[in-house]
Amino acid sequence: MGRILCVDDFQLYAEMVGSLLKDRGGHDVKVMITPMVMEDIEAFRPDLIVLNLVRKPETISAGGMKDFYTEVDGAKAFRVLAPMANIRGWPVVLTSLAVAERDVPQDYTYEAFIEVPQRLDYLLHSIDRILAARTHHSQVIPDN
Questions:
Q1: Do β-strands 72-73 and 28-33 pair in parallel, antiparallel, or remain unpaired?
Q2: pLDDT of 94
């Protein structure tokens, strides 16, 4: 069980993902709608952050994405959260609707990129796997 911060621009979606993580995953979940209050994030001290990226419908064109930060809801939150998460050691899992992983700038790191809503079970499995790996790596192995 981990402390998961679920960030989105849309209250209903964030609550749906938060409920899945809480009810089926047994995690302690805080749902935060952008814009975020950084002090609240620090106070919650998440083990992992789930951030949803959604392509703004008015920006979809046959020519592909031109500017991630203006065409994607959640992109500005990613720009703010990613450096903080990296410093604190909080893994970031990006979920996406109508955004391809190739469109995400490589400026910041993230642990997983998952298309939703089709893959919500995979989201839960991925989060459990990431948290288990963090727990395993953080355990101190005694000297013999």
A1: unpaired
A2: 93
